[in-house]
Amino acid sequence: MNMLAYDLLIPIIIAICTNMLAMRTRSKFASLVVNLMAFLFIAAICVVALTYGQTFSFSGFISISHLSLLFILLFASSFFLVSLISYGQSRSYTSLSMLLWFSMLGGSIVASSINMMPIVIGLELITVSSAFMILLDGRHRAEATIKFFIVGSIAASFFLFAMALVFPYDPSLGLSIISGNSEYVALAAIMLFIAALGFEGAIFPFNFWVPDVYEGAPGFVTPVLSGINKKVAFLALILVLFTAFSAYVRFFSPLLAVLAVVTMTVGNLLAIVQKRVKRMFAYSSISQAGYILVGLAVGTQMGISASIFYIFAHALMIIGAFAVVMVFESANMRTIEDYRGAYASSPLFAVALTILMLSMAGIPPLIGFFGKFLLFSSAIYSGVAILAVIGIINSFISVVYYSRIIDVMFSGTEKKTIRATRTIALAVIAIVVAIIIFGVYPQPLISAIHSAVAQLPIA
Amino acid sequence: MSIALTIPIAIAVPLICLIGIGFTKGKRSGSLSLFSTGMGVVFASIIAVSYLASGLSLSVSYAYLPYVGTTLSFGVTGISVLMLLMASIVLFVAALSGNQENENIRLSSAMIVLFQAASVGLFASSNMLLFFIFWDVGVIAMFIMINVLGSANRRKASLNFIIYEIFASSLLLLGIMLLYAYSPGHSMSLTALAQSGSLPQNVQLAIFFLFFMAFLTNMPVFPMHFWLPDAHSEASTQGSMLLSGILTKFGGYGMLLIFIAMPISHDYSKYVAGLAIFSAIYAAFVMSRQTDIKRIVAYTTIVDMSIILVAISAVSTIGNYGAIYGMLSHGLAVSLLFLCAGNVKYMFNERNVKRLRGIIATSPAVTYGFAIGMLSILGLPLTSGFVADLLIFIGSVQGLGIYALLPLAAIALMGGFLYLVFSRSFLYVSENSVPSSFDHRAQKAGYMILAIAIIAFGIVQTLLLSHILL
Fold first, then answer.
1. Residue B294, domain member (yes or no)
2. Cβ-nearest to B162 among A380, A403, A442
3. What pLDDT does residue B441 have?
4. How many domains does chain A have?
5. Concatenated DSSP letters for B338-369?
6. Residue A360: which domain range?
């Protein structure tokens, strides 16, 4: 019996229960305070455990490794940022907080699972609560909700079917290395897993739902979808592929490489032609999923560390970017042309968005640059230089559409009234500071990820 | 305290001032940028004096990213000491007298100090990753400078600029990653670049080609120069001074580094020289069709940087001296010319040299400034340009033979055209243009500092060069 899992579980449960109570009294501030306390508690536990702890296991399904702690820390920070962003924006903030903590529970279960069963449960927890989050602000969100829910269900059914294929090899469904006689069944299972998680992670052929849902969702739920749900999917992909199927790396890494190339290229090319900023960020977040896949396609310890680093970086960047987009949207700025004069209206958010976009484009010394540097150099290191070349061409393309927005934001002097609560400004400033600090000195994050990945059974 | 610590301090001071500018407004941020660039001159002088006195290169190194095999290492060698001096003087003058319109002082001062940190870091870094980081920071600062502070056509010019520059930096990054993956010990330091002769032939070739294209775009030389005229002519006065005075030297400095460090570059020196000679003559011809005074000055940058590339590709010691001195001299002279051109535009609201007449009658200071800058670019003795041209052509002839003298034709053409412009627009006094305002004391101080620097570097060259070790 281990205390750490309870230490992490208890604040989440308490947060869910107190948010339920807050729902009855409709007290938004109480709910914010609860979120803050629970976040601080979880963050403290994670940091302490990462610094001093070893690996802990818990009843055969859950095992809290360094990797899980890192991801729980990421999810907790992301959810807390989202709760800061949505404070004062959402009409039913208390319910939203409760759903956020349900998602957090799902994310933590996925992060610490050593079995496929909890992964499915965690993913479903997240999907269902995200669907409710989209619907929370009114009936007019129904289309996006239904779309998202259907896609989530399809993904879940793919996942379950893949598990059924694995079942004959390993009835316990544990994430231990599978090696059987029939490679074809294993390969079919791998493809189904990639498809299932590709829906959530918005990898190329499964990305059709992304722009509509991101645009249809309320401004404060889009960061959840792109900053957290997507990252959980990639985490699940890493866990499944590089533990259970690590004997088949040579089969699936070419597949992942092709998906990476297609995903980033398609995302980038479609992002260029978008008129609406939110859709543009949706497509750019698809292309960023392609970059994350580069590291998985390389499949070495270096590549996976780089991918995880980029997952962290992208979670921060995209949450910040969608937060700023939400702020501008509240002043009826939707298309790129509407962004004219953004710097004159609100220097803080315009500069923040500039820094976030530069980071996404991979300009040093911001966190996105180091992510891309690690990813592409791991590709060159393992002899697949072509992935690095295509990746760099893609980041070059992305500069085209990011610089267009920067150009528009800084031109024009017409002032628009932009109303933003202090909490949003706080969240955006925190993200920008984190991006700059981890961009200038990424060593602590890199070494933590590196030692966490060293525990995975990768060749 | 060792002198080498001056280098990290010289990078930290502008960054601290940048944060300070974030909390100040208007005039006060202008004085912060002046303080920062002034300290830059002091630091560069300390570094230069201690280097010239001891002859030992300064270096300092801290642990940074052990996982990526990178240390935070800075070093000042003979090449970078002159670049640092030049950059700090140009930055100081730009902060002092570049913003005559007094518009957007806060943003322009912020970008100046950011660019200061980038240029000091770039010239002092002894690691390719740091070099790249500072390179991109400089490019972004310059992009915002052109985009926000430039003149009417600035948006197209700035997008053109950023696309070319990010293309260059993508190639540079790819080259650095190749160096990192293949060099023994996985290092990105300049020593690893110097030992690249032991790498496989095709890797060496790939690294050289990627770096070469990146630096060629930045310098800029013929096929990659299309961003330059627009960017220079549309940027604000400060922007064009820093752009042509310092940012184009990033590429020249990098080019010099790879030609010194990578033995494979010697196999291609003849082709590079041919390209550079063509570029110089081509740019001189294109220049002679221009009517916009800022575009004219912009094309002198292409001519001069092409001539510097000829000297670099000659791979001879004197040629390298010439390239360094040429970059120093050109940085000072062209920023003086841009300062004058920007002030002419500000005073007369006119950039077309066909309509500018008799500037000397109303504003002699700008005329003398333009004259000194022009004469230095054309290589008048006692200006720094003379030393530079002399060394460049001696070195090039040593390395490449008599054909290396062909760019002299470009200089002659450029000289003739500049003289024509100067005599008609500045000296011709029968029908004077009427200024709407006059240059202030700050601008006159700017001309004076740059003119004194040009003449001083023309006189003390022997002192400097005898101490510089490559």
1. yes
2. A403
3. 82
4. 1
5. HHHHHHHHHHHS--BTTT---HHHH-HHHHHH
6. 250-459
